[in-house]
Amino acid sequence: MKEKCIYKFDNIKVFLMILVIIAHTLINSYGDKGMEYIRFICLCYTMPLFTFISGYLSKKEQSLKKNCIRLLLPCIIFTIINDLVQEWVNPNYIFSWKQPGFAMWYLWVLFVYRFALPYLIRIKYILLFSFLLSWFVGFIPFVGANYSLSRLCCFLPYFLLGYTIANEDVLVRYKNEIFQKLNLVGYLVLTFIFIGWFIIITFRPGLTFATAFNDGYSGNINGLMLRIALQFTIYYCIDGILYSKSFS
After folding, report:
1. Which of 52, 220, 225, 233 is most buried, taking the most CB atoms under 10 A from its CB?
2. Residue 31: predicted pLDDT
3. What are the residue boundaries of the structural domains of the chain, listed by start?
């Protein structure tokens, strides 16, 4: 069963890579609502599901040496390359050692997750706490793009959810209830969810920035509601794609 799931994850990751390319191709398309709708759909699937799969495939015992070689070292090397190229081609580029290079943030975040995993799983109700953390860090002013702190906190629930489903008996027993295979009604609900987001994007263009969870919302309670709504949408997207026959 585990091997079958891994093969399915390989198929899903190919699909996600395509969505990442599409989403980044449309990164400057916020003046075109049609393109922003497509980008929104892409981003609701990509990094949350990548993070979920990374958590599912992570082990309780972690090797610091392997994680440094496979995650931290590439992050540093390609960050340096990115900064050198940016300095060369972009005269307005501002170097900051507080931020990983373009797209390298995920290697940094995954390194932190796997380093902390043996300690995090000792905490009772850590999955619940991780969701609460992802909501309330938005009120902390210094949690933002620097060190990818905002992303680190906001994608943590998906990493822990993947690990928990793969390893904890309590969720393995109930995972069919947690991630039920979507029927026609389920897909209709997902369709109406995206229709709702399309209406919101029509009146609030630029919302696709929020799907990266890269910034906070200070004292704005609307930002909290937006984050929770996005997480609900992302959960439903993950549910739908994990149990789609197309990737079996």
Report:
1. 52
2. 63
3. 2-59+168-247
